[in-house]
Amino acid sequence: MMVSKENIEFKIFEYHEGLLNPQEQAEVLNFIKINPEYQLDFDAMGKSYLKDEEFVYQHANELLMPEQQQAKSFFGWRLGLSVFLISLLSYGVYNKINTTDKVVAHKQKFTQQSPSMEIVNKNNQKQTIVNEDGNKSLSAQNMQTSAVFNQNPSPSQIALQKNPLRNVIQLANNSLSNKDNHTNISHVQSNTKTLQLENNSKKFSSLSIKDKNLETNLGLTDLQPLRKKLKYKEPKDLTVKLNNSKDQFYANEEGTYLSLNASFAGNTEGLRVEYYYRTEWPQINNGNYVTQFITIDTYSKLLKGGVGGFIERDIIGHNTFNTTSYGMFYSPKIKVSEKLSIEPSVKFAHTNRSIQWKQVNEFMLTDPRDGFTHVKGDQNIGDVSSSNIRFNTIGLGLLINHKNFFVGGSVDKLNDVSYNFNELSQNITLPTLISAQAGTEIKPNKESSWTFVPSVNYVQFGDWERLWLNNQVKYKKLMIGAGLAHNNAYIFNFGYVDRIVRLVYSYGLSQPPVGLTSYYGSHQISMRINFLPVK
Amino acid sequence: MLEQLKTKTALTDKEYNEAVKTLSHRLYGFVFKSLRNDEDANDIVQDSFLKLWQNREKVEVEKVKSWLFTTAYHALINLVKKKGRTSSMEALEIDRGFEEKADFELKEILDKAISVLNSQQKTILILRDREGYNYKEIGDILNLSESQVKVYLFRARQKVKEQIKDLSILS
């Protein structure tokens, strides 16, 4: 655009703001040269820029906060420890899975201090020997053992062979009769399948175990001691069993499996009643949360699925925010095969929430646990003392139940709930609640009294999210467990579990999201009762 | 997977203290130049940092400065509205400005000149000249579009320019 008297003032402004290219700048300067009455405007505009000024805020030091490294590092090493323990557990499970069919041969020199060598078979059906030094496998079927004796004038080899009936290693029959070398081989204890080699004549100089195919020698040579033992044990059969009992325990701050995902409905025998009580951060005078809910569900043959309902009561900050929700859900069970079922669900809920404005401060306006934004920004609420809000929500869920594991997810509050305060003239929209969960149950073997129940659980609500890694260990009817969240939250639980009753106490540690740096504890009680059908 | 989900939004104690050390003086200057009242400026700066501390889980490190200026600006506007001081203050400043002699230093002239601006124009001018924000950043703080910022800035500079011309500091 050409420079003219109509736009010269704006062009002068753009000139000093640096918004013009060199050609446009030249046009402005040329115009002023031709019309010198604008020179004063040009110069005055140039001087209208504020100069940088040094200000000193006298109270800066009063605003400084003590740098609390302790809390971070305190939980830093706990986080590390948790990861380590989980890794250890994982390794243990992995090791059990992967060593089920293997035998570990511990290479060990026969000395006076360590007069024995053990070959431990962890599975009697399949026998493989791992040479720890060479990382090579030896097949028991091809195993050839031999002992070398110092005999004058030259050493001789006596073959050892595996006795297929007794699962022991012994000298071959033809060499067993050789009494000159004063070597005895015997089953010290038949029940432990221990083989003992004795060399009373001190002529026993080496023992080797060879694989015919690999020609691998464990290298047990230079044997000098008086007594040598070759132990061959048959431990218990170890086979990891995965299972999905469809009644796993999960009750963290976001709720239970059933409260998050209605697809879990109807998956236990009879009528299931679950009660959950949680008081979060009771140490905080004005900000704690008390949540209670009851869920009831059962399987309906008529509806071919799980049906149920729930009532939830949530109190935040000593009645500052007071929420009551109730609703019902239905989850049809679609059987794909004997091992697999797909279970969608739908849930309807009605919520009534009251806000006591006189107890509200601006930092409580966002419910950090569920991401519910009550009011954005500073508001002058005048004489309004309380508000009641009512809204309905709808949710969908999906659960894939396999014989050995489950994977599920849910999307709640799908209907974009919003409400308006006349006094505040502000629309507030609830975010969508998203959850995902997966888990299994692991038994070291079919008969074991121990069960490991690992699970992964994720919840997102608006900007708030939490990913949990949980693991519980059950021994018969006792349960102990722990959970670790990606954003520094922890939960520990223990309790009693059987087919009818499950009673679990949990202690959680987390950081309140606003205003406080320390970790605060939460207490939680979860109880489930299965009312079994009368047969 | 854990790392992917983890986003760094929280300020550490150290980062918060660093913000106090580096930004409190500038924030005070920004508020003081707008209000011309030391006590109110102190209160607003203190409140702004208190809010920063209490919301530090939500504020990203790189946005601390604009967050503070936005918070202080809102507090400043609320205070001005609450006390109804805008008109009276401006009138007072203008009167005082014209009563005094014309042989001011440029800085003093500018101080007097910007006192005739309304709060928004004054804020835009300070954010632009003293804090070096671009139009978009100013728009983010004041909830305005870039073009609105440009127009408001133009009007502000026009007013200041006219004041400078009237006070005849240019020969």
Please explain how this structure is put together.
The complex is a heterodimer of chains A (535) and B (171). Chain A is mainly β. Helices cover 14% and strands 46% of the residues of chain A. In chain A, the strands form six sheets. In chain A, strands 15-16-17-18-20-23-24-27-28-29-30-31-32-33 form a 14-stranded antiparallel beta barrel. Chain A has a seven-stranded mixed sheet with strand order 4-3-1-2-11-9-8, with no helix packed on it. Chain A has a four-stranded antiparallel sheet with strand order 7-6-5-10. In chain A, a hairpin with a 4-residue loop joins strand 8 (183-189) and strand 9. Mean pLDDT of chain A is 68; it is low at 69-75, 98-237, 362-382 and 421-426. By secondary structure, chain B is mainly alpha-helical. Chain B has nine helices and no strands. Classes of the chains: A mainly beta (535), B mainly alpha (171).
Question: What structural keywords apply?
Answer:
heterodimer, A: 535 residues, mainly beta, seven-stranded mixed β-sheet, 7 helices, 14% helix, B: 171 residues, mainly alpha, 75% helix, globular, disordered N terminus
